[in-house]
Design a protein that fits this description.
The protein is 61% helix and 0% strand. The chain is an all-alpha fold and 90 residues long. The protein has two domains: 44 residues, no CATH class; 34 residues.
Length: 90
């Protein structure tokens, strides 16, 4: 397994030493892995991010006209029916 060295400030290092039970290298690996997943799948959204967006009052009114919303709804409905018929068991 390749090694990577991180530099941290003295202040950060002192704070980290207060928690010797934490395996910092494991934590870094997990954080880097999650960040890479986000970069590799830009359209994927976490539950937390979705909740944050839904809590914004103007999320559904940002740059979308009523006609565009209806058009999108119809397309989604059509795709749902296509999926339902394509997965039907005879």
């Amino acid at each position: 397994m390749p090694n990577i060295t991180f530099s941290v400030s003295e202040e950060l290092f002192e704070r980290m030493k207060k928690f010797p039970e934490i395996k910092w290298s494991t934590l870094y690996r997990e954080i880097i892995g999650r960040y890479l997943e986000k970069l590799e799948m830009p359209n994927k959204i976490s539950i937390t991010e979705l909740k944050e967006k839904l809590n914004k009052k103007d999320i559904f009114t940002e740059d979308i006209s009523f006609n565009k919303a209806i058009e999108t709804y119809k397309k989604m409905r059509e795709l749902k029916w296509e999926r339902a018929y394509s997965t039907r068991i005879d």
